[in-house]
Amino acid sequence: MTSSPVLTASGLVKQYGELRALDDVSLTIRAGESVAVMGASGSGKTTLLHCLAAVIAPDAGSIVLSAPGTAPRELVGLIEGERARVRRESLGFVFQEHLLLPELTAVENAALPLLLKGMRRPDAERHAAVWLAALGLAGLEGRRIGQLSGGQAQRVAIARAQVTGAPVVFADEPTGALDSATSSEVLDALLRATTGQGRTLVMVTHDADVARRCSRIVRVSDGRIVGDSARDAAEPARPASATPEAAPLWPAPAATSAQAPASAPTSTSTEAAR
Fold first, then answer.
1. Structural domains of the chain, ranges and CATH numbers in brackets
2. What is the CA radius of gyration of the chain?
3. Segment 209-267, tens digit of pLDDT
4. CA distance to 84, 136, 202, 205, per residue, from 25 (Å)
5. Considering only CA atoms, which of 29, 82, 70 is closest in space to residue 194?
6. Which residue, 218, 271, 210, is CA-closest to 246?
7. Among 82, 157, 165, 182, which is most buried by a count of CB atoms within 10 Å?
């Protein structure tokens, strides 16, 4: 059964001076997909990601976001304040450099989106701790970012992206700054936390091995989509450990009007030393 579209882009155009970064791009992304966007530097792949994520506005075209439980919404034409609200309420983001706040602890960083939505700090941090535990970071909630490894910090960023239950997560080279072993662990965590929960992942990557882990690969060149291959069976995210009992217990989406769970579930995921 084909899932419903969550993002529908039609005829996107973005011009920077003489450069046409996007040239009549159309793309439909469905719920539960993991989509890798690939292309050479300057191909337009990052511009496409930023338009889909309501970070920048295209000069022409349409982008409709159909988040579960809400009416479809046209993103093109929104002013920056309205786009910021869409990003805050419906989208999650993971970057190559985690962009965490170094003066805050892991749990404080992960809780930030909930605080911005109006949740009380104790409830927000309690819910964020559930996500950190599910991602194998139990016991590290109070550490500052400088006390974490690169892989651990990137998993905090994944928790921050998913703590509100965002139906769509955008990732810009999320493993680009990591060594190969840590990259694989972080990608496992990202896939489990998004498509493994029925959510959608749209990821820009230069790494063909990373792209092959996704259910679909979109190739961009000179501002146009030149390839779009849906794979019958992407390589699944690897389990947290060899035993079924070790699979993480994922938290339900937090509601700002409701108190978050009182305690984090126990996860026996092996903590990466990277």
1. 31-43+83-246 (3.40.50.300)
2. 18
3. 999 999 999 999 999 999 999 864 444 444 443 322 333 445 555 554 433 333 333 33
4. 23, 39, 16, 19
5. 29
6. 271
7. 157
